[in-house]
Design brief:
By secondary structure, the chain is mainly alpha-helical. The protein contains 6 helices and no strands. Helix 2 runs antiparallel to helix 3 (about 45-80) and helix 3 runs parallel beside helix 5 (about 115-140). About 30% of the residues are buried.
Length: about 150
């Protein structure tokens, strides 16, 4: 056992699923907070834009985030180590995409080129899609014994 392996914050694979659910849930909460606030503060037709965000969240989840979350779940279950690193709930590509998305979100908020209620609708749909993904990770963690045998 080398010195670096002693410092590695290893946790059970099931814990990775719960950490992924927490991270995706936190990001979902932040996006929903920003999105709904942008809508409420900038249009009297807030209900239509919130409803639009809700409707758009389903295809967003189904055609984009479901595949990503399933890929991460399969990868986490396939890790050889029984106690992988705490930060391996994402792969390197996932971390790069996360940094890019956060940067793009901050940039789009700062330049104000898109009307706030449209941006709010997008953030609401993205936040709900991420919430569904967080629930996918959570339910995978709860069903860990059954899916662990399959994965």
């Amino acid at each position: 056992m080398n010195f670096l392996s002693i410092l590695k914050p290893g946790i059970p694979k099931r814990g990775l699923l719960f950490i992924a659910a927490s991270v995706w849930g936190f990001v979902s909460f932040r996006l929903l907070s920003i999105g709904v606030a942008n809508i409420l503060e900038n249009t009297p037709l807030w209900w239509a834009y919130v409803a639009g965000g809700m409707v758009l969240s389903f295809p967003f989840f189904r055609f984009f985030f479901l595949g990503i979350s399933e890929k991460h779940i399969k990868r986490m279950l396939g890790i050889k180590s029984p106690r992988p690193c705490l930060f391996s709930f994402f792969d390197v590509k996932g971390y790069i995409i996360m940094v890019f998305m956060i940067s793009l979100g901050i940039f789009s908020q700062r330049i104000k080129a898109i009307p706030a209620f449209y941006l709010g609708t997008f953030y609401t749909s993205l936040g709900l899609a991420l919430l569904f993904s967080a629930l996918n990770f959570l339910f995978s963690g709860i069903r860990y014994k059954q899916i662990g045998m399959l994965g």
